[in-house]
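Milestone M4 deliverable, item 7.
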Amino acid sequence: MNSMMPLNIFKSRIFGIFLAFLLLCLFIGFAEYLIKPAPVFFKPANWMNILLQVSINAIMAVGMTFIIITSGIDLSVGSLLALCNVVLGLVMVQFSPEAGFMQLTLGIFATLATGGIIGFMNGGISVQWRIPPFIVTLGTLGVARGLALWLIDSQTENLIGRVTPSFSFIGNGTVAGIPFPALVAIFIMLIGHIILNYTVFGRHITAIGSNEDAARLCGIQVKSNKIWVYIIGGVLVAVAAVIQTSRLGSANPTIGQGFELYAIAAVIIGGTNLMGGEGSIVGTLVGALIIGVLNNGLTLMNIPDEIKQIIIGLVIIVAVLIDQMRKR
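Output delivered:
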């Protein structure tokens, strides 16, 4: 039995995804070496930058993993990020920077509540009225973006000098040389991995995604569990919004455009079944790293943004095709 464990590891989907990540790193490093006289891809400073960029997507992708495992989808995460960003900014500027802890606490609480409420609406409407999550969250995408623009009158609110200095640490600080947002993302992914693999809730949502009718017959509370995954997804978007707001130093209702593409891409590339019932937080982490490395490498090689969008879209299609071929 033990002698077969190494073989099982090499045959696992996670190993294949991690191998693809390593090959991508080698390819980008080699391509940059040929193109640029002073390559920087493999330098530690660049990798710290990659971790910082990946953290936002990784946090949102954890919630998206739970949602997709239940055969759902959430297209509103980018717009919700903008709404949470605006709510955080508007709440915090109501207090002076001297308020310190109170300003920070109330701002973060309002942001998490916003994410949770929108998540509850997405899950509740989808479950109670049996409307496909694709349609519900597509509508929420417009509602959240519209609210963000309306609340701040389509303007950008500068927060620098108007909020407590400790707020900047959330998005820009480091601990032992590692970006603090990356540590937050790792912690959240660890908690997500434990919940998905070692709790009753994790087993229940996997069962729901595999066969909802069978799960219901087994006594699993399908409706409440599905609503909870959307609440979790919304709260994690709010956490990402706190970090993003700290990094930007402003409340901007136009941020987050296309972020749903990156979150879904990380989950799918990470091996989660788009039809539900199967997924991995570790795979999602590697998927987010692949997206981050791809973005970073294309930027270092001065590839235009529109071409980057095309390449990432093609990567998603290829990932789904490979997954379908594997199943067949």
